[in-house]
Amino acid sequence: AVLAKSAQLVGAALLFVVAPIVFGTRVETTILWTGAGAAAVAWGLWRRFTVLRYLGFILFFAVLGKVFLFDISGLALPLRIIGLIIVAISLLAVSYGYAQYRRRVVAQQP
Q1: CB-count exposure of residue 57 (10 Å: 0-12, 13-18, 19+)
Q2: pLDDT tens across 40-88, in order?
Q3: How far apart are CA 28 and CA 96, in angstroms?
Q4: CA–CA separation, 81 and 105 (whole Å)
Q5: What is the pLDDT at residue 63?
Q6: For 29, what's the count of Cα atoms within 13 Å in the CB-facing half-sphere?
Q7: pTM of the entire structure?
Q8: pLDDT, average across residues 80-104
Q9: Own/partner long-range contacts of 76-83 (Cβ < 8 Å, ≥24 apart)
Q10: What is the pLDDT, as a whole number, of residue 13?
Q11: What is the pLDDT of residues 2-26, one digit of tens each?
Q12: In this structure, are residues 49 and 8 in contact, taking their beta carbons and an 8 Å threshold?
């Protein structure tokens, strides 16, 4: 069980490292990291793998920092708005899913 969880973690880490190399532009990297963060959180919730779940949240915070520090400055206004809306929707979706998961776990505890 520990070996399988470690393999999952290594696979997720490789995706995060390879993504900027394969997808060199800023917007595509942001989109990929947002999807990878959502996948890490979802997979961590589904498999009850806490470390992967927290890594997904850390990746979301990294994406927010990247968007506000680097991506927004180089985009035209309509694309800025669309980009921020996409990031906001993904954050809301992950937050909602995590809240539902926590509510279910708390309800199952005696």
Answers
A1: middle
A2: 888 888 888 888 888 888 888 888 777 777 777 777 888 888 878 877 8
A3: 25
A4: 36
A5: 81
A6: 19
A7: 0.60
A8: 81
A9: 83/27, 83/30
A10: 63
A11: 666 666 666 666 665 665 555 555 6
A12: yes
Closest by CA to 38, choosing from 92, 80, 105, is 92
Q: Between helices 26-46 and 2-22, what is the axis angle to 10°?
A: 170
Instruction: List the structure tokens of 94.
Output: 């992950």
Contacts of 93 (CB under 8 A, 6+ apart): 38
The amino acid present at 107, given as its one-letter code, is: A
Q: Kindly give, in sequence order, each residue whose CB lies less than 8 Å from that of residue 34, ignoring residues fewer than 6 positions away.
A: 60, 63, 86, 87, 90
Whole-angstrom distance, CA of residue 97 vs CA of residue 100: 5
For residue 61, give both structure tokens.
């915070």
Query: Per the structure block, which two tokens stand in for 24?
Result: 């060199």
End-to-end CA distance of the chain: 26
d(C-alpha 81, C-alpha 100), whole Å: 28
